[in-house]
C-alpha cells in the first residue's frame, strides 16, 4: 500500500502531465490555442463562433470560459487569457484595446402565461425599485410581482441600471440570479415573474415585453427606436497578435457576423 | 383521553416506524426520480462522446475525464500527506504541544464550507499564483480540502489498532517503522480506506470549490494547466441555465451512480479486508 | 551485528524525519487557508469598521456599502429551519434504528440513510427547484424561492449527519440503564424519553450542532432554491441570501474592495463555523469523559 516505487512512478507521471503546459500557446499536438474568458452574456455566442472557427481552422483550439465581464477584464489585464469578453463598457483604469463585435438588446421578459404585452420604461423602473409590488397595479391579478435581477458586478445588470433604472436603485427585496440562463429559467417557470436578459438568448419559453410600445426586434434596434442596447466587446491587452487576430477577423467577417445575427444579435456594422 | 402508558407506547412506536419509513422513502424518491428521468437519456454515446451545443446534445465524456483527473490527482497528493501526518501524530511524537497544534488545525478545518475553499483557491491559485482556471488549481484546492478527512480517519484507524500487536512486534525485534509498515498499517487499512473513499466521493460531488478553481471549460483537458468541467459542475450549469433538462437528469444519474459505486465498494473492500484477516 | 544496527537506526531516523515533514506540510497547508482568508478579509474591517460590516443592512459593494447583517440573519434562520426539518426526523430515525429495529433491518436501513449523504448537494438543489419551489409557490404563495425552500432542502441534507451521530450517542447508552428501567415496569417509550435520551443528551446535541455547521456552510443548493434577495426576510416565504451564497454569487465578478468584502464575509463565516465546531467537539468530549 505504501510501496515507494509506485509512488515515484506516479509522481513522474504527474510532472510529465503538468509539464505539457501552455508554453508558447501551443498544446502538445502543436495546435494554436486562443483563450477567451469573461461575460456570461457574450459566452454562448463566443462558443458558437469558436465551434465554427475551429471547423474552418483545424489547427486552432479556442478555449472559452465564463466568469463574468469583470473577471474577463481582469484576466485580460493580468495576461491570463488572450481575449476578454465584456457586456459593459470599460471603466477608468481598465486600459485595454476594445473591439465591438456586435450589439445586444436587453429584453424585459415575463412568463408566457402573463397577458401583459407592453410596459412603460417608468413602470419597469418602478417594479425593480420596489415602488410597484403587485401585478394588479399594472393591470393583472392580485399577486406579488416576483422580480429577478442579476447580481452586482454583472455587465448585464450594469447596462440595465444605466439604461432603465437611471439612478434609482434596484430594491434589495428582489431575487438575484447569477446568469442570463438562470434568470430565464426563473421567469419561464414562475407565472408571476419578471426579469431582464440578453435579447440574444430569449426564446419561446419566455415572453418578451414591449417597452413604451416598442418591441425589441433587430430592425427596431437598428433604427434606434428600441434603446435598451449595449455593445459586446472583445478586449485584448494592446494590439492582438496574428494568432488572436485570426479569430477576431473571423468574428468581424461576414460569416462571423451572420452567425451572430442569426442568433438575434445586431451586427457590429449596423 | 388516552393516558395509559401502554397505549402511548404503541402510538409512539408506530410514530417512529412512520418517520423511519418516511426518511428512507425520501431517499428512494430522490434516487427514483433521477433514475426514471435520467435513464432514457443514458447511452454509450452519452458516456463516451463530447458535448455539442454547450451540452444540449452529445455526451459528457470530457466531464468524466475532468472529474477523474481531479479525483485521482487530489487523492494521490492527499493520501501520502494525510496518512503520513496521521502516522506522525500517533506513532512518533510524544510531545503534546505539537500534537495539539496540528490537531487544532485539522479540527478547525474539518467543518469549513466548500465555498471558502473556492474563495481561497480562486484568489490564491488562480489569480495570485497565475495558474488561471486550471486542473492544477482545482487539484491543489481539493487536496487541502480532503486532507483533514484523511488525517482524521487514518488517525482513528491507527489508534484502534490494539497496543498488544505493537508490543508483540517490538518484542520480536522489529523497529518502529517495520512495525508500522507490517503491523499497524495493514491492520488499520480498512479505516484508512474508508477515509480515502469518503474523500473520493466528496471530490466527485463537489461543486463550489471546483467551479472557481478548475473552471468550466467544456473541452477535454490535455494537461493540468487547462481548465475542465467536472460532472458536478456540468450538472449544475445544465440545471441552472435550463440548457437541457434531460441531459441534466442523465448527468445526475451518472453522478449518483458514481458516488453510490464508490460508497458501496468502500463498504465491500472494508469487509473483504476484515474477512481475509479473520481467516 | 553492530553494523546493521546503526544502519537500521539511521533509516529509522530518516523515516521519522520524513513523516514529520509530512505532518508539518499538512499543518502549513491547513494554516495557509486560515492565514490567507484572514489576511484578505481583515483590511476591510479596518477600513470600514467592524460595525459597518456586521451590523450594516445594505450590501452594495460597488457603491461602498458592505453591510452583511441581512445575510448573517438569513444564514441563521435557514439553519434553524433546517434543524426544525431535519432534527426531530433525524433523531427519531436514530432512536428507531437503535431501539426498535432488528439487526437485519438496521443493517439495511442505516447504510441506506448514509447513502443520502453521498448524493451531491447540487442534485438536492436541482430537485428542490423542480419540485419544492413550485409547490411552495402554488400552495403557500410567494415566489417559491424562499427561506422555507432552503430550510427543507438543507433539512434533508443534514439528515444523515444527525441520524449518524444521534445513533452513536443513543446506542452507547448502557443496556443496564434500560434494563433497570424495564425492571421497574416502565414501557419502552417511557424508558426512551426518561432514561435513554437524557443520557445521550450531549451526543445528540453535538450531532445537532454539527448538522448546523453543515447547513450554514452549504452553498450551491441554497443558491438554487433560496432566491438570493438581499433584504432581511419578513416571512418564511421571502427569498433570502445567506453568507455562503453571497460569496459564490459575486466571486467571479468582484474586484478591489468588492472582493475584499467577500473575504470579510468569509471571515465572519469562518468564525461562526469555528465556534460551532468547538462547541460540538467540547460536547462530544464531555460525553466520552462521562
What would the keywords be for this entry?
heterotrimer; A: 270 residues; alpha/beta; D-Maltodextrin-Binding Protein, domain 2; 2 domains; ten-stranded mixed sheet; two-stranded parallel ribbon; 9 helices; 12 strands; 35% helix; elongated; C: 290 residues; mainly alpha; MetI-like fold; two-stranded antiparallel ribbon; globular
Characterization of this structure:
- The complex is a heterotrimer of chains A (270), B (279) and C (290).
- Helix content of chain A is 35%, strand content 23%.
- Chain A has 270 residues and is of the alpha/beta class.
- The longest helix of chain A has 16 residues, at 4-19.
- Chain A is elongated and about 65 Å long.
- Chain B is an all-alpha fold and 279 residues long.
- In chain B, strands 1-2 form a two-stranded antiparallel sheet.
- Chain C is an all-alpha fold and 290 residues long.
- In chain C, strands 1-2 form a two-stranded antiparallel ribbon.
- Chain C is globular.
- The chains are: A alpha/beta (270), B mainly alpha (279), C mainly alpha (290).
- Chains B and C meet through helix 1, helix 3, helix 4, helix 5 and helix 6 of B and helix 1, helix 3, helix 4, helix 5 and helix 6 of C.
Summarize the structure.
The complex is a heterotrimer of chains A (270), B (279) and C (290). Helix content of chain A is 35%, strand content 23%.
Tell me the span between the first and last alpha carbons of chain B: 59 Å
How many structural domains are formed by the residues of chain A?
2
In N-to-C order, the SSE pattern of chain B is HHEEHHHHHHHHH
Instruction: Label the structural class of chain A.
Output: alpha/beta
What's the CATH topology name of chain B? MetI-like fold
Number of domains of chain B: 1
Determine the number of helices of chain A (DSSP H or I, runs of at least 4 residues).
Answer: 9
Provide the spatial order of strands within the biggest beta sheet of chain B. Answer: 1-2
CATH class of chain B: Mainly Alpha
CATH superfamily of the largest domain in chain A: Periplasmic binding protein-like II
